[in-house]
Amino acid sequence: MKIRLISVVALLAAILATRVFAAPFAQLSSTETQKANTTPQIVTLNSNDGSKGIDNNKGKVTIKEAGSYFLMAAGQIGGTGKGTVRL
Predict the structure, then answer these.
(1) Among 3, 16, 24, 27, which lies 20 to 30 A Cα-Cα from 70?
(2) Is the distance from CB of 32 to CB of 46 less than 8 angstroms?
(3) In this structure, what are the phi and psi dihedrals at residue 57, rounded to the nearest 5 degrees?
(4) In sequence order, what DSSP letters do the residues of the chain get, joined into one string?
(5) How crowded is the C-beta side of 33, counted as CA atoms within 13 Å?
């Protein structure tokens, strides 16, 4: 029982520390269907899945702290019609 209690306390402390000391981050996405086009299109980011230190206002991203940031973008392909997808 004592080992279990220590494990639970350590896990709780790790979870709390992660949230307090986490570096600024944002995970943004869109709930809208955005169709492909041959001309450039603005990608909407209307959903904030989680963030700290970075604001998102309908795709206008504001970083609150100066520094170096790593940015990663990933598209998803799907649809309801027939056809070929070439990547």
Answers:
(1) 16
(2) yes
(3) -120, 90
(4) -HHHHHHHHHHHHHHHHHHHHPPPEEEEE--S-----SS--PPP--EEEEEESEEEETTEEEE-S-S------------SS------
(5) 4
Cross-strand partners of 52: 25
pTM: 0.59
Query: CB count, 10 Å around CB of 30?
Result: 13
The model's pLDDT over 9-63, given as tens digits with 9 standing for 90+, comes to: 666 666 666 556 678 888 888 888 887 788 888 888 888 888 888 999 888 889 9
